[in-house]
Amino acid sequence: MNEVKVVYGLVKNENDEILAVHNIKHDTWSLPGGSVEANETLREAVIREFYEETGFDVEVKNIVAINEGKILNHNNHALFITFNCKITGGNINNNSPKEISKIKWIKSNKIDNYITYYQSPIKDLFNYNAEYFYEGEFEI
Q: At the N or C end, where does the chain have fewer CB atoms within 10 A?
């Protein structure tokens, strides 16, 4: 199986709303994010994907969830890594119109009606925290 890493950014605004995007290919809602490209760190991937899908620049904080799955019809073993993020600039804009059909702020008490792949309520993810460090490039 191919190893695949997918990153997501979780943000909440002052109105207790979480930013979500609608993916055209799978007709599903998710947090902004996508596949990590070759030679890209997880943090770099979150920043790039978040901007591509929403138009917002983000500061990437720590990991709040790691999900794992095997996507049999694509022969992929996938890790889905969700980071807590903070919007630092930009304006809402869909820079990926072939992939994303809608960008929407959704009340945190309703977000689980849209995004169903987390075991705990998405609003609870803000309470979780695993430190993330990029240790740089080195040889051992």
A: C
pLDDT in tens, 4-29: 999 999 999 999 999 999 999 989 99
Dist. CA 39–CA 124, nearest whole Å: 32
Q: Dig out the tokens for 94 from the structure.
A: 């869909």
Instruction: Please choose, from the candidates 109, 89, 94, the residue with its C-alpha nearest in 3D space to the C-alpha of residue 32.
Output: 94
Cα–Cα distance for residue pair 109/35, rounded to 1 Å: 27
pTM of the model: 0.94
Give the Å distances, CA to CA, from 56 to 25, 42, 77, 95, 111.
22, 17, 29, 10, 20
CA distances from 116 to 1, 28, 29, 51, 62 (A): 25, 9, 9, 23, 22
